[in-house]
Each structure stands twice: as C-alpha cells, then as structure tokens.
Amino acid sequence: MKAVRWHARAGASLDEIAEPILPSDRAIIVAVEACGVCGTDYEEVQHGPKVIPVGRPHPLTRRMAPLVMGHEILGRVVSRGARATQPVGQRVVLWPQIPCRDCPACRAGNDHQCPRLGALGLSADGGFASLVVTDERNAVPIAEELPLDRAVLVEPYAVALHAFAQHSPIDKTVAVLGIGSVGLALVETAVALGARRVIAVSRSTDNLKAALRAGAEVAVTAEAMPVHAADLAIDASGAADAMTLLAHALADRATAVIVGVRSRVVPAPIWEVFSRELSVVGSNGMRLTEFAGAAAMITSGRLAAAPRQVSRISLAELPDVLRSGPAPGTKIVAVPD
Ligand SMILES: [Zn+2]
Ligand SMILES: [Zn+2]
Prior knowledge:
Layout: E1 2-6, E2 12-16, E3 27-36, H1 39-47, E4 67-68, E5 72-80, E6 91-94, E7 97-98, H2 104-107, E8 118-119, E9 131-135, E10 139-141, H3 148-151, H4 154-166, E11 173-177, H5 181-193, E12 197-201, H6 205-213, E13 218-220, E14 230-235, H7 242-249, E15 250-258, H8 270-275, E16 279-282, H9 288-300, E17 309-313, H10 318-324, E18 330-334
Parallel strand pairs: 11-12, 11-14, 12-13, 14-15, 15-16, 17-18
Antiparallel strand pairs: 1-2, 1-4, 3-5, 3-9, 3-18, 5-6, 6-10, 7-8
The structure holds zinc ion (2 copies).
C-alpha cells in the first residue's frame, strides 16, 4: 500500500510498504477515510526529529524511523482480532495515544501520562496510509452522517477539552495564543463551555478571522493584545516568546496553561510570575475519555468544529505540503486514493 513515511533527516516521502497485519487478538485494522495534518507533523518534517525515535526503538512500541506519520485518523474497521468487539464496517476516530495500560498512571486513569506512552504516527505507524493497525480500545465510534471535514477534527478538540477539564473556562476571560488547529479548538471549546469572553492572538489575519468565526470576541496580533486582562491564558503556539506574552495577557494571580511546545527551554519572565503571583501549568495530550467526549460534542453539534477551511489532498501531494507548511487559515487533510 502507499504510505507517507518519515525518514530521519531526509524528510517525508511517499513509499510503497506492506499492508499491516493484526499483531494481537484485540487489534483492529482501519481503512483510513482521512487523516488531518497537524503542527506536530510539520514540525517533525521541517525541524525534526522531535518525537519520532531515530536509531533507538520506542520503549513501548519497539518502533523507530522510518514510520508512517499521521495521528488525526478517521476511518472504518475492516478486520479485527479474535477478541476484538468493534464491528467490521464501524466508522471510527482513533485516540492516537498508545499507553502500556498496566502502570500506576494507566491504572489510575491517567493513561495520557503513561511513562512509556507512544503515539500513532509518531512512535507507531499512523494514518497517512490506506490502512492503519491499532488496539480496538483506541477506536471511538463516530456517526456515519458526520461530514468528513468535521469528523477528522476530534483530536485537536480533545486537546482543548483536556486543558479545560483541569482549568475551567466558565465565566472567565480566556486568552488563546497561537491559532492553529488546537488554538481554534481552544477558542471554540472555551465558548461552548461557558467562557465569559475569549481573546484570540495570532500573527495571521486569516487565522484571526477563523477565531472570530469560532466565537472569539477579540482577535488581534500580539502587539494589540489586551494587557493583564485574562483569567486564563493558554499557549498553543510554542513560540519562543510565549511565556512573556502569557504573562502580559494574564491578570494578577491568574493561570497560564501550556498546551503546545516546540523548544524544551524558553525564557520566562520570572519576576512577573513571582510578583504578580501567576501560575504556570502544563496540559499534555488527552485521556481516552476526553477524546471520546470531544467526539460526542462534535457529533451532537455542541462543537461546530467548522471555523476553518479544510482542504483535502492526496497522499502523493502530502510530502511537499509537509515540507512547505499549510496555507494560512487552512487545515490540510490527507485522503488516501
Ligand atoms: Zn495533532
Ligand atoms: Zn502506562
């Protein structure tokens, strides 16, 4: 089958690879209907390796580059192991994370914090292919009638739900920095959950327009951002100056949430954090339960999940797009032939 694989520093290419086989009796094979391209994918191709293991296998999946990329996967079950219960033919979205399911974190329900956590498309073959194999417990059924363009967006909305599960946006002024897939999902989810108002901050005018459509009351560049106004400020940009912008955005004693990271170390305005008693917390990925919650909210229409132009491309077009990045304001979705 055709698949777009990441090859260490040589970037990504369209390769002919063997079709997957069922590795366990709870595994399923899913025919990919569509797979979203997210910031992590561009980052991995343009500046990687960041997450994909090179030269040393991932401790849980035992896999390393070359790997099939893609972790925002919508598809249909086409075969299953002897003990799997997902019906063949079921349309599903895939929770991309791969936990060990056996450590204290996993047993406590914090499967997203498993110390050996892997992910489809990053430490196991992902969805930029005709077929993908996964444990059936990663598959969340999704309604047939939900349009592809919305069904494929569950993952970024689940990232948003996870952040707000820990830091409620209800009746708060919420600032969102960086309006990509996750930033837009944060804006829309904050509004849906009852934020008093949402401030969106981005360099791209197209993305700012999308943020307004998603329900932001204010959509501005960093220079025009209201200062010391937010009760909750969330960074989805991973920019080097993110900590400084978050501090400017926050009211005294308010909380900054980090959901996107590009560099392991960035400068922080430690005096402001200290003197104005700011909190800085992380929110990493999402639990399976939150992924299922996002799928349900999109299915019910509580989240419209449609503020941005979705543009569909073939797997053959994907390697170039991964190298050059998306057009501003566009979400790229790969659709296998
Ligand atoms: Zn993603
Ligand atoms: Zn675990």
